[in-house]
Structures are given as structure tokens and as C-alpha cells.
Amino acid sequence: VLPKGVKAPVEGTSSGWAAKNNEPYINYDLRREIPFAIDRKLYDEGIRSTVSIPLYQDRVLGVFNLDSIEPMRYSPDDLQLLVPISKHISIALENTFLFEEVSREKMEWEKTFDAITDMVWIEGRDRLVLRANKALLDNAGLSVSELRGMHCSNLLARVGIVSVDCLCEDLPVQESQSFREIRETSGSVYNFWIYPLKNEKGKVYASVHYLKDVTNQKRIEQQLIRNDKLASLGILVSGIAHEINNPLGIIAGYSEALLDRAEDEDLKAVKGFEDFPEYLETIHKEIFRCKEILGSLLGFASPQSGKTRILDINELIMEVMLLVKHKAKSLKHNLDLDLNRDLPKVNADPGSLRQLFMNIIINAMYYTPEGGKIRILTGIDNVIQNTASGEKQMLKISISDTGSGIAEDIIERIFDPFYTTKPTGAGAGLGLSICQRIAREHGGMIEVESGQGVGTTFSIRLPVAEEQ
Ligand SMILES: Nc1ncnc2c1ncn2[C@@H]1O[C@H](COP(=O)(O)OP(=O)(O)OP(=O)(O)O)[C@@H](O)[C@H]1O
Ligand SMILES: [Mg+2]
User: What are the pLDDT digits (tens) for 216-260?
Assistant: First the structure.
């Protein structure tokens, strides 16, 4: 008996001849004649006669060989029996091969199904789950057997969709694909497709369901749209500000001249003129207020032109403190400084940074009820930032307050220009958008963390200067 796996060559063997010619071959007596050279090996092992019958089913599958130590053991009569047996073997072999191929393909499809990171499942017409991919099993935290036979509506709650009972309710098993978008109150957004599975007659017997979490994608899209809007808004604002700035300058100049003239004793003596100095003073004051507002609008809309220098953030914060101390005192706020003495320097425009810290500290004081605590902390950030110009060590300046906090649903908008929760007329809503612009212009960033009723912390990160 030959061991499994031994390969016999086609050329030079009688079984090879049978396979090639698709015809049985009988070696009557190897002692007398060995027509195929390699058959000598059989002879050396004591074989004296052989019969080879091809195994054929649309193609050659192999050869059915019988060997005997007796010469003249096989005759053409034996073929009457052996050929039909070979046919049976051929059919069985072909089936095995086909089965192996099908299982291999099935496995490949299953792997493909599981490789999809979105949730995919198949439902029968009764809306019960027949199969599900790995992403769905993982998201639902269920095993294959737990999931099979589950109703669509029970499944959804498991993956966090609660706003709809059933995805396919108003999408009956249709002839063609259908789509819908699901928006959860939690802010999650899903895209959902159904594709019908049809039998040979074109009748829908099941449907493939494809559920994709697009929350992040949507958020990025929204951000892009918003950035776009802000950019156009900026252009518009700076245009208007410039236009108003010039006539306002002229009015300011004339009001100043008039104010000087109103000091004239002769004029003051004229009845009916006595209110003039006071009115002119008010006009003058109000014009300067307008100019201030315009200045901040222009500052917001056009890039900073301030000169940068190497500076110490702690010193800058001390300067800002001098400006806000008085206000803090009147509000009975407690200002607490925790400045790291070994702080590396930054390369920055001091005017802009002063404005940045002022804005955030003024906010902290404004949005914190009397007697609150405002803490300013400086230090080296323990995260190295990967920026376009290589790895950067950052400083971190945190400004925390014990104020009202910021509601979760508005926190994303507080850096938008003109976003304010102050009553109409009380604030422009430009403070934080200017701060963010300044931080970005310095290669830094601002983050906010807030708990309602607990307080808010703004963290400003700025890159350390290369030369110290
Ligand atoms: N420390 C804080 N605590 C609570 N809410 C804050 C704090 N800082 C900012 N906010 C919120 O962010 C919004 C935007 O702030 P921003 O400084 O940009 O504008 P504003 O303070 O409303 O107006 P402006 O600064 O132009 O006078 C505020 O209206 C407020 O709702
Ligand atoms: Mg503000």
C-alpha cells in the first residue's frame, strides 16, 4: 500500500497513460513486459499485474488502480465491474471537491461580512433576525444564538437607538433599496439602508440591513459649514467696520473741536447755549465707545499685526492682575494665583496675550456669583503636541472659576463670534472668539471644561519659545 501523499508521475506510468487517454489499462504480466519505465518500481516491490481505470467526471479527477502479486490477475472481463465502480467513485469525488469549494467560499463570505465595521444583519419577512455580523454582535453585546430570532425593535435598544421603535416600520420589505437617517436625542446620527434579497422568481424573502454610525462625520461636516459661515461673516464685519470707522473719525474730530470752542466764556454766557458743553461731552464719549466697539470688531476680523517677543507668561499674568484686581475686589471674588516659577518663556505678542487673559478672567468674574473663587494656574503641559513644524512643548495656563458653569448644549458654540447668553445689548459675544483667534495665531489652543453649578476651567496652551 502506498502511503498518502506520494506523487506518481503521469509520464512513464500505466496509470498516467490511463488518465491521459481516459481509458482503462491492464498490465497482464510485468515479468514479461514493462511498457512504462517507472512501473518497474511496482515490479521491484513484487507486483506482477495491475489495472488502472481513469476517474472522470467532466474532467480527470484521478485514477483507480488495483495491483496484484499474481500475474494475469486482471482481464478485460473485470472491467465490466470495475468501470461502473470507478464511475461511482468519480461522482463521489466530484461532490467532495464541490463541497470543499462551497465551504471555502462560504467562509470567505462570512469573513467579509465580519470585516465590515458597520452593523449588518439579515432579517426574514417576519422581521426576525436571521444572521448578524460581528460589528452588530459586539455593539449589541449579544451572542449569535441570542441574536438569532430577535425582533428588529428589541435589537435597536441594544445598540443605543431609542428614538424609533422599528427601523423598517415605514419601510416595508420593498422591491428596491431604501434609506433613512436616524437622529437620536443624544446627538448620535445613524444612516440606515435596507436592501431586499430576492429568490429566482424575484420575490423578496429577506432583507439586508445596514446601520452606520455617522455621528462624527456629521459633526465634522457641521463644523466645516460653520467655519465657512464664520469666514464670510468676518469679511462682512471688517468691511462694515472699515466703512463706519472713517466717518466716525471725522465726527470725533469735529466733536472735539466743538468741545474746545464750547469752553469759550462768551459762548457760555449766551442763553440757550448753556447745555452745549454737557451735550457735546456726551456725544464725544459715545463716539469713543463706538470706536472701541469697532476696534474690537476689526480686531476680530483682521489678523493681528502686533510684534512678538520672548516673554514670561507669569509676568504677563501679574500685569493683567493689576488691571482686574479692583473689579475682583468690588465683586468680593477671591483671586488665587498658582504660578510655576520655572516656566519656560514663550514667543508672543504681549498685547494680544494680555487681551486673551483679560477676556477669560473678565468672563470668569462676570459668570461667577459674588464671593466666588477664581484660580489661575501656570505650568508645563505634560503632553507634547505634534504640530506641522514638529513636536512642541507647550505651556498650560488654566483659569478656573466657581461660577454657573456652561450648559452642555451650548458649550460647543461659546467660541463662535456673536454667541452670547448675556441680555441683548449687554455683550457682543466676541470675547472668546477673539481669545481663540489669538491662541491659534500663537500656535496654541483653548479648551474648556465645565460642570453646571460647579464652575468652568479654560485651559490655554501655548508653545514654548525655541530660544529661551
Ligand atoms: N467662565 C464662564 N462661565 C460660564 N459661562 C461662560 C464663561 N465664559 C464664557 N461663558 C459663556 O460663553 C459665552 C460667550 O462668551 P464670550 O466671552 O465670547 O461672550 P460674552 O461674554 O457673552 O460677551 P462679550 O465677551 O463680547 O462681552 C458667554 O455668553 C457665556 O454664556
Ligand atoms: Mg466675554
Answer: 888 888 777 776 776 777 778 777 887 888 888 899 899 999 988
446 touches ligand 1 (CB under 6 Å): no
* Residue 207 CA to ligand 2 centre (angstroms): 54
428 pLDDT more than 80:
no
Residue ranges near ligand 2 (ion) with Cβ within 5 Å: 363, 431
Q: How far apart are the first and last CA of the chain?
A: 86
Write the pLDDT tens digit of every residue in 260-280.
Answer: 888 888 888 888 888 888 899
Q: How far is the C-alpha of 339 from the C-alpha of 334, rounded, in Å?
A: 16
CA-angle at 93, arms to 89 and 94, nearest 5°? 120
User: What CATH number corresponds to the domain at position 233?
Assistant: 1.10.287
Q: What is the CATH number of the domain that holds 69?
A: 3.30.450.40
The ligand 1 atom at the shortest distance from the C-alpha of residue 405 is 4
For residue 399, the ligand closest to its alpha carbon is 1
Residue that terminates a domain, selected from 94, 112, 130: 112
Domain that holds residue 22: 14-112
CB-based contacts of 207: which residues, under 8 Å, 6+ apart? Answer: 122, 123, 168, 173, 194, 195, 196, 197
Report the atom number in ligand 1 closest to the C-alpha of 427: 27
Give the residue-averaged pLDDT of 55-73: 94
